[in-house]
User: Fold Uracil phosphoribosyltransferase homolog from Psophia crepitans.
Amino acid sequence: KIEIVTFSRKSSRGDFVFSADRLIRLVVEEGLNQLPYTECTVTTPTGHKYEGVKFEKGNCGVSIMRSGEAMEQGLRDCCRSIRIGKILIQSDEETQRAKVYYAKFPPDIYRRKVLLMYPILSTGNTVIEAVKVLVEHGVQPSVIILLSLFSTPHGAKSIIQEFPEITILTTEVHPVAPTHFGQKYFGTD
Assistant:
């Protein structure tokens, strides 16, 4: 049974963060399910052998600042030692054109699978610019998995048209995205 999680401008910040963190964890875990793994045998503390799987090396997260940083803890809760890069992109108020201000990645990012974290996908412009920066650093779009909580059809379509090889994971596609997410999550509303 899956409980429906709702966001509202009237939700308390605590309730909002609790619900957002639950959704983030679900999306992160599904993103991790998309990463390559190898089979392995583990000996339990009682001496029994267990056939399991482990992630192959070479994965990382990249958060699009600031709202994408809300997803970092969910990723670290599942993969404690995963490397995380950051990109700061801001849109011009008048033109809605996205501009990159900062990017810091693991030096070998071009060899890694990338979980790109950005919770609210509205126009797709910010993510498109972030993917362009990753491509400039040698990352192939086919190894990028976008983790998003909410997406508009227009935003998802824009990204897929520009980068058809990218994988997009989201909890909902709806014409209206809750653009107040970052302010509510970080308490700056």
About this structure: The radius of gyration is 17 Å. Residues 28-182 form a domain with the Rossmann fold fold (CATH 3.40.50.2020).
